Amino acid sequence: MESLIPFTTSGALVDCVDKKVLVVLRDGRKLIGVLRSYDQFANLVLENTFERKHLARYYADQGIGVMIIRGENVVLLGEIDLDAEDEVPLEQVPLEQLDPAYKREAEFRKKRETDKSQVLFEGLGFSKEGGEGDGY
Question: Exposure check for the chain: N or C terminus, fewer CB within 10 A?
Fold first, then answer.
């Protein structure tokens, strides 16, 4: 019966070791690489890592190499289906072509979040992220 209880700790990552994974970070970046190692805090070591940048129906990859990721920054981690990976309905373009528009979009999103945070703080009394009252 105990074998039917699912892992809810970093131990669940054991099945993803040496497999290609997608990692979404708190700052919104999407990293793809081979999970080589992890620890009890879900700190990750990725090899052959690249950051995938999406904009509309286009994407570009920026190579990183080996990366160590602090576990508290991971929002999502999932194994990539290698058979379905080639059927992505997006068009790959060179990073130089996508990067300027991607940066403009990122700045727009950042400003929108800042404005929204300010309205919530001033109008409804919410605390600002990382500010007083945001601790856990």
Answer: C
